């Protein structure tokens, strides 16, 4: 029946399906194949699988797998091209130091193998990446790219964004550009002088800026696109003390001829993210137009952050913000005296839909924060509050360390945010305290995603994921309805076939256990005190997804999701399992519920699977990664 649908309708259906479903559907018939291939390869990502070999992209394997002719035809449909790599441990000096010399490159410049000259090794590293990128660029349609994302975390290689490079010559209609470069590299800043040749950009993101030449390239690019730029994200590796830098980036000092009281330098800018950028402490009437017209404002560890917010709250023109995110350390910036500036800012306007805060050493005496949050209660849809305070490590108070703490007003949460409005909630609190807090409103809330946050570095020595999986295995083997493989005997309680990836998450773990003795040893870990946290989380998940829990809840997250999978061992994600949809390929299911309550109620989930986020009214992955701990790229002197 689907095969008889008009091509236009098939295309609309394809746009709402995940890539895995599109690939399966394209095998049904030649008509499906012709209609769906453009959608499958509209978004295409090439990556370095290891951050210790950043010049080994999977581009060659793409051509080997599909063949040159077919790969070329697929690339003709690409609109959004991504080049990426993990950024977990290697957060600085990623160029050349984290690479291997591939065999394909040795014939041209074999003398660089083991070379002591860092500049030569760096040049060879970039040449190696360029050779691979050219295989892709040569097969793209001219002016076909809508978005280009460079998330390799290295310097930009030659021939891409330098003057006369591929993007500036052959993809002039590019509308979205996202860059993550290595500002800590001593050879950075080169091959970026072609940014100013891109004149159709609507969204610009650049993380990892450090050098003055990079700043000049950024300013020229913004000036070239000032009239139509809608979204701007700028992140520095380390804090810049140049107080005029923000004005230069935002064009507040450009000689653009505008009438007095006319449009701002960036008239269409609605989204602004600044990280480690020194902000203007006072806004002139001309400066304020840019900030007051914003719909989304995100400030992460920016000097003068509170002064800017205080200046904005005193402006006579009403703010139009719908989303506000702030990460700030009150102790780091000793010049800050007006601690109430953040509260005054939040009280100065109405209509905020998304409020995301990560505050370090926020004065505990500042009780007005509760009033500021409650001020936006009628419109607030997602709320994140992550507080960290200096805590004594000994009775005498001689040693202190910054730790996650629940907010003082946490017991009164149901009266501070509207349970009928909030769909996304993230807080630093124990699972048991959260259950106690939400029990009074669990059946009346519209909560879809709940995130129990903690800072990954605090538990970097622990594998939270493995601890929880060990508990799940322990519960499965104790169940009278579970066989030796950990499967439920009830055939109707099974995983959807499209969700077999979740079973593999457990299979991968069990395969690492060589024998019954090791299984018993791993299961015995649940008796140790530190593993009571995993047991507490699972008990909370059983309540939350169970018949006495939160009916609207779809996803429960635990841990630190900063910068995607940087803290993958300190995070765990579960999703509600609808028994009506439980019909797995093997007719079996994993039991993740209390044996006396029935079930199963939930399954482990993965960030990359679109099924995880089905039914959510907002962007789940973006919500989990908001207010990250630390920068994506970091200076070795600030880590």
Automatic annotation (TrEMBL):
Query: Boundaries of each F-box domain copy?
Result: 1-44
Coiled coil regions, renumbered to chain = none
UniProt-listed InterPro entries: F-box-like_dom_sf, F-box_dom
Residues annotated as transmembrane: none
By its UniProt entry, which Pfam families does this protein fall under?
F-box
The source's superkingdom equals Eukaryota
Mind telling me what this protein is named? F-box domain-containing protein
């Amino acid at each position: 029946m689907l095969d008889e649908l008009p091509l236009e309708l098939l295309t609309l259906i394809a746009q709402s399906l995940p890539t895995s479903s599109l690939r399966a559907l394209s095998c049904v018939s030649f008509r499906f194949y012709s209609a769906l291939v453009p959608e499958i390869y509209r978004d295409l990502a090439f990556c370095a699988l290891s951050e210790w070999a950043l010049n080994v992209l999977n581009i060659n394997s793409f051509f080997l797998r599909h063949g040159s002719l077919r790969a070329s035809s697929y690339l003709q449909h690409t609109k959004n091209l991504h080049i990426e790599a993990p950024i977990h441990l290697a957060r600085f000096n990623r160029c050349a130091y984290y690479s291997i010399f591939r065999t394909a490159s040795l014939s041209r410049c074999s003398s660089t193998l083991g070379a002591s000259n860092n500049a030569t090794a760096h040049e060879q590293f970039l040449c190696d990446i360029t050779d691979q990128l050219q295989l892709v660029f040569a097969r793209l349609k001219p002016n076909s790219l809508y978005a280009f994302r460079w998330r390799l975390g290295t310097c930009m290689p030659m021939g891409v964004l330098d003057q006369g490079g591929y993007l500036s010559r052959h993809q002039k209609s590019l509308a979205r550009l996202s860059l993550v470069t290595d500002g800590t590299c001593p050879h950075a800043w080169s091959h970026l002088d072609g940014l100013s040749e891109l004149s159709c950009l609507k969204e610009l993101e650049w993380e990892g800026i450090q050098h003055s030449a990079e700043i000049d390239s950024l300013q020229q690019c913004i000036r070239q696109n000032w009239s139509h730029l809608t979204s701007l994200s700028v992140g520095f590796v380390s804090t810049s003390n140049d107080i005029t830098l923000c004005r230069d980036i935002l064009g507040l000092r450009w000689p653009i001829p505008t009438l007095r009281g006319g449009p701002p330098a960036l008239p269409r800018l609605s989204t602004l993210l600044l990280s480690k950028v020194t902000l203007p402490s006072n806004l002139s009437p001309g400066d304020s137009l840019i900030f007051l017209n914003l719909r989304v404002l995100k400030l992460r560890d920016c000097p003068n952050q509170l002064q800017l917010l205080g200046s904005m709250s005193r402006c006579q023109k009403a703010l139009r913000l719908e989303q506000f995110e702030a990460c700030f350390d009150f102790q780091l910036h000793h010049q800050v005296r007006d601690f109430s500036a953040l509260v005054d800012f939040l009280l100065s306007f109405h209509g905020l839909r998304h409020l995301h805060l990560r505050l370090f050493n926020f004065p505990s005496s500042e009780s007005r924060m509760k009033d500021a949050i409650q001020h936006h209660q009628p419109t607030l849809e997602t709320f994140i509050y992550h507080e960290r305070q200096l805590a004594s490590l000994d009775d005498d108070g001689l040693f202190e360390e910054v730790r996650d703490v629940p907010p003082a007003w946490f017991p009164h949460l149901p009266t501070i945010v509207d349970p009928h409005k909030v769909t996304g909630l993230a807080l630093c609190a124990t699972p048991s305290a959260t259950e106690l807090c939400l029990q009074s409103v669990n059946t009346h809330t519209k909560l879809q995603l709940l995130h129990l946050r903690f800072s990954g570095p605090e538990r970097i020595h622990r594998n939270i994921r493995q601890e929880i999986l060990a508990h799940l295995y322990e519960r499965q083997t104790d169940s009278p309805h579970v066989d030796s493989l950990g499967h439920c005997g009830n055939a109707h309680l099974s995983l959807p076939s499209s969700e077999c990836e979740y079973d593999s998450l457990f299979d991968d773990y069990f395969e690492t256990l060589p024998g019954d003795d090791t299984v018993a040893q791993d299961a015995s870990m649940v008796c140790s005190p530190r593993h009571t946290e995993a047991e507490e989380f699972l008990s909370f998940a059983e309540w939350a997804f169970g018949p006495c829990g939160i009916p609207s809840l779809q996803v429960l997250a635990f841990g630190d999701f900063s910068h995607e999978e940087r803290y993958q061992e300190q995070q765990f994600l579960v999703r509600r399992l609808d028994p009506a949809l439980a019909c797995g390929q093997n007719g079996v299911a994993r039991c993740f519920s209390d044996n006396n309550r029935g079930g199963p109620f939930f399954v482990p989930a993965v960030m990359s699977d679109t099924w995880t986020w089905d039914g959510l009214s907002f962007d789940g992955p973006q919500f989990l990664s908001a207010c990250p701990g630390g920068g994506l790229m970091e200076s070795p002197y600030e880590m």
